[in-house]
Design goal:
Largest sheet: 5 strands, parallel
Strand order of the largest sheet: 2-1-3-4-7
Oligomer: single chain
Radius of gyration: 20 Å
Structural class: alpha/beta
Number of helices: 14
Shape: globular
C-alpha cells in the first residue's frame, strides 16, 4: 500500500464496520499511514446501509472536515462512505474530500462506480444514488484482504459479480468497452470463484476474483444494469436477503424473460460463446441454456438457496409484500437500462416464480 505510505499531514476519516474495527483489520490502514496524519474511524457501517447510519456519519464528517475519506470494507461500508460524501456535498457542508476505496470483498464493484444503495428502513425500500461526486479518486485493490472472507460470503459476493457482468452485457447502454470488461470478468470468475469458495486462502484465485469484481463494476458503471438488480434491491430491503444471493436466485427467470426478445437472447448467447460456455456452432437457444446451467451449477456447488421458500420466508409474508416490492422495483434506477420493457405484472410474475 505504497499510496497510503505517502499520505502526510492530512485529516483522514475511515468508514468501516464494527467487525473490521474490532478485529484489528482496520490497522491495515492506520499502520500504513504516517503518525503525522489525524485519523478518525467511523465504524457504524451495516449491511444494507440506512439513511440513519449515513446521518451519523454526516455529523462526524462535518465536525472533522477531512481531507481524505477512505471507504474500507465490503460494498456496504463503501456505500456508506459514498452516502456521507454525497449528502455533505449536496448541502455544501464541507469542501469535497479526496475519496479512496479499499474493498475487502470481491463483489459489489462499488470501489469503481458512481452509484451507492441506501436503505429507507421505514418504507423497506432501497434508493440508488448516482453521482460522479461519489466515484472514487483512488481505488486500492489488495486480494490479501479477501483471504479470510467466509465461504457463504464468497459465494454471495461472487454471484453479485456475475450478475453485474451479465446484466451490463445486455443493458441498453452496453458498448464495446463495457462488453470487453464483462467478458473478461466472467472469464476470470469461471476460473476462480469455486476455488475461492473451497480454498479461501488461495491467493491466485482470490486475485483473479478481486479483478473480476472490479472489471464488472467498471462494466456496469458504463453500461447500466437491469431489472435483476431492481428486484433484488427490493428483496434485500424487505426481507434482508443478501444482495448477491437475491441476484443469483433471480438470474434464471430474468434471463428467460429478456430472451423473449431475439436480439437480447443473441447477446446472452454471445457472452456464452465468448467465455467458451458454448461452442459457436451451437444455436443461441442452446448457448443461453448453457449460460443458465452454469449459473445453477455454481449455486449448487456453493450450497446456495435457489428459492425464497428455502430461506424460511412464509408465502403469506412474501405475498403481503409483493405489491410494495413491485412498485419500488418500477422506481428503481437500474430498470432504466433493462434491455426488454417490463411492467408491474411481469415483475410480479418473476417474484412469484422464485418463491
Amino acid at each position: 500500500m505504497e499510496y497510503l505510505h505517502g499520505v502526510q499531514n492530512q485529516r483522514i476519516m475511515i468508514v468501516c464496520d464494527k467487525f473490521l474495527a474490532e478485529n484489528g483489520t482496520v490497522h491495515y490502514i492506520t499502520d500504513a499511514v504516517s503518525a503525522k496524519n489525524v485519523v478518525e474511524i467511523f465504524d457504524q457501517a451495516i449491511p444494507d446501509p440506512t439513511i440513519e447510519v449515513v446521518g451519523k456519519g454526516l455529523s462526524l464528517i462535518c465536525k472533522m472536515r477531512p481531507d481524505i475519506v477512505i471507504g474500507f470494507g465490503g460494498g456496504s461500508a463503501i456505500d456508506t462512505a459514498k452516502g456521507i460524501i454525497y449528502f455533505a456535498g449536496v448541502k455544501n457542508l464541507i469542501p469535497k474530500p479526496l475519496f479512496v476505496t479499499i474493498p475487502t470483498t470481491s463483489g459489489t464493484g462499488s470501489e469503481v462506480t458512481s452509484a451507492a444503495v441506501i436503505t429507507d428502513s421505514e418504507t423497506k425500500s432501497k434508493h440508488l444514488i448516482m453521482s460522479d461526486d461519489i466515484l472514487a479518486d483512488v481505488a486500492l485493490l489488495d486480494p490479501k484482504l479477501t483471504l479470510s472472507v467466509p465461504p457463504a460470503v464468497t459465494a454471495n459476493t461472487g454471484m453479485d459479480v456475475l450478475t453485474h457482468a451479465i446484466e451490463a452485457y445486455v443493458a441498453k447502454k452496453a458498448n464495446v468497452f463495457s462488453d470487453a470488461l464483462s467478458e473478461k470478468s466472467v472469464e476470470l470468475l469461471l476460473k476462480s470463484l469455486l476455488t475461492c469458495y473451497r480454498s479461501g486462502n488461495n491467493l491466485e484465485a482470490r486475485t483473479m476474483m478481486h479483478e473480476a469484481a472490479t472489471l464488472a463494476g467498471m462494466a456496469f458503471n458504463n453500461a447500466g444494469l437491469g431489472v435483476n438488480h431492481s428486484i433484488a434491491h427490493q428483496l434485500g430491503g424487505t426481507f434482508h436477503i443478501p444482495h448477491g444471493l437475491a441476484n443469483a436466485i433471480l438470474l434464471g427467470p430474468v434471463i428467460d424473460y429478456n430472451s423473449a426478445d431475439p436480439e437480447v437472447m443473441n447477446k446472452y448467447a454471445m457472452l456464452a460463446y465468448k467465455t467458451q460456455l458454448a461452442a459457436s456452432s451451437e444455436s443461441p437457444e442452446m448457448a443461453v441454456r448453457a449460460l443458465k446451467l452454469m449459473i445453477s451449477t455454481l449455486m449448487q456447488c456453493m450450497k446456495m438457496e435457489s428459492s425464497i421458500h428455502a430461506l424460511g420466508i412464509s408465502r403469506e409474508d412474501y405475498e403481503s409484500q409483493l405489491s410494495n416490492m413491485v412498485a419500488n422495483a418500477q422506481q428503481d434506477y437500474c430498470i432504466n437500462t433493462t434491455p426488454r420493457k417490463i411492467g408491474a405484472e411481469e415483475i410480479k410474475s418473476i417474484l412469484r416464480s422464485i418463491y
